[in-house]
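Hallway conversation turned thread

IA: we were arguing at lunch whether anyone had actually written out P-loop containing nucleoside triphosphate hydrolase protein end to end. Turns out nobody had. So, for the record, here is the sequence (132 residues) and right after it the C-alpha cells. Reply here if something looks off.
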Amino acid sequence: MPQKHTFKVVLIGDGGVGKTSLRNQYIHNRFAATYKATIGADFLSAEVEGADGRRVLLQVWDTAGQERFASLGKAFYRGADACILVYSVASYASFASLDRWRRDFLCHASPADPAAFPFIIVGNKSDLGEER
C-alpha cells in the first residue's frame, strides 16, 4: 500500500481570532462557543482528496496567538506546506498585525523559497460583523 503524502498547514494570527474554532469546524464539523487559549501548538489530522485525486493526510496546526504563549508555537512552523493568516473581522488590530505574523512565520519556518510560499488570509467571525 503506498504511503500517503502529508500536507502541513499552520494557522497563525492574534489570540482570540478563532484559529482553534476554524480548525475544529473543518476537521470535526463542530463549533464550541467557549474560548480556551492555545498554549504552544496543537494539530488535528484528516484524510482529504488532493487536487490530483490522490488521498492526502492534512495536518492543520493551531498555534498560540497570545503574546505570552506565541514563542512556544514558533517551533512548529518548520516543515509547513502552507500558512493561513487569520484575523477577526471585528478587530482591525488583528488585521493590521497580519504582516508581522507573515514576516515572523517566514523567519522561523525558513521555507526554501519565501517569495513563493503559499499564504492564505482568512477573515473570521463574520457572524460578529455588526461589531466591526
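OS: looked through it. Helices lie at 19-28, 67-73, 92-96, 98-109.
IA: good, adding that to the notes. Residues 5-126 form a domain with the Rossmann fold fold (CATH 3.40.50.300).
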